[in-house]
Amino acid sequence: MSNQPSLKDASLTLNNKVAVLTFERDDVRNALTGTNLIDDIVNTVEWANTCSEVSVLVITGAGKAFSAGGNIKEMQDKAGIFGGTVDEVQNQYRQGIQRIPLALNKAEMPVIAAVNGAAIGAGMDLTCMCDIRIGSSDALFGETFINLGIIPGDGGAWFLQRLIGYQKAAELTFTGRLVKADEAKELGILLDVVEPDALMSATMALAQSIAEKPPQALRYTKRLMKQAQRQELPDFLESCANFQAICHNTEDHHEAVSAFLEKRKPNFTGR
After folding, report:
1. What is the DSSP letter of 197?
2. Which of 101, 167, 260, 261 is the most buried (most CB within 10 A)?
3. Sequence-distant (≥ 6) Cβ neighbours of residue 206 within 8 angstroms
4. Exposed, middle or buried by CB within 10 Å (0-12, 13-18, 19+), for 57?
5. CB 166 within 8 A of CB 139
6. 3-state class (DSSP) for residue 196
7. What Å distances lie between residue 164 and 80, 171, 185, CA to CA?
8. Chain CA centroid to CA 108, Å
9. For residues 10 and 23, is the Cβ–Cβ distance under 8 A?
10. pLDDT digits (tens, 9 = 90+) for 131-165
């Protein structure tokens, strides 16, 4: 893999333009704090942004959990990002877990979460930072910060309400209750629910169907989807005109049109 990042608590594979980042800290339920997973996530996204071989990034967890979020033992011991004065904790959040939402918000490619088990606290928020979520029937979600007397310090309150609407997000965030896979699908957190042994095959099938699209147009489309969340319509339409002009002048666009008219499978080169 081009410029493959050096990961400590996760593994990374790349096949047919689909990169898969797997958390490998089942011993702590893939907690994001107290491990190297924050760095692993940020470094992987930064690598994928600059790697033309990556069209889709899949994030999942090895073992029983997707991610338990914050390490509660560290909270009890006031260790890691949880220890220090108010100013120190603020800076530790900014320099620590808040790097994840900033990185994923800048991801140039579609990001899919394959939620294999519990996604709790910051683990749930991480899934909401992705573009699409596929869950196994064992998936379990919880915006549980309130139960520990804290708030979603990783930006979860920003992501969740944009995903499922303010009222539903408020209920989950204010109560801290757990949500099983079927309800998560009803709420719009999950796109689909599959049996545990079918999770990765279902996720990879979706990822591959996306990765087969023209690489440049795919990344421009992802960028537009993000811009649409913050731009007024006139500014957004200007971006659409600019990106469309670029796409009309790519070799992949002409190949797509030719393949459509000739009723054959296109061969995209990323040019």
Report:
1. G
2. 101
3. 112, 132, 134
4. buried
5. no
6. helix
7. 32, 11, 11
8. 11
9. yes
10. 999 999 999 999 999 999 999 999 999 999 999 99
Q: What is the DSSP letter of 146?
A: G
Does residue 205 contact residue 149 with C-beta atoms inside 8 Å? Answer: no
Residue-wise pLDDT for 88-128, tens only, equals 999 999 999 999 999 999 999 999 999 999 999 999 999 99
| CA separation for the pair 51, 171 (Å, rounded) | 40
The DSSP code sequence of 36-92 is SHHHHHHHHHHHHHH-TT-SEEEEEESSSEEE--S-HHHHHHT-GGG-S-HHHHHHH
Helix segments in 69-155, DSSP class H: 72-77, 86-95, 99-105, 122-129
Residues facing residue 141 across a β-bridge: 119, 179
Tell me 270's DSSP state. -
- Chain-centre distance for alpha carbon 218: 16
Cα–chain-centroid distance for residue 174?
Answer: 24
Distances (CA, A) of 123 to 29, 97, 112, 168: 10, 11, 14, 18
Residue identified by tokens 């095959």 is: 201
Which H or E element spans position 174?
Answer: helix 166-175
pTM over 0.85: yes
111-115 and 132-136 beta bridge pairing: parallel
| Token code pair at residue 235 | 């500014």
Tokens of 65: 């959990």
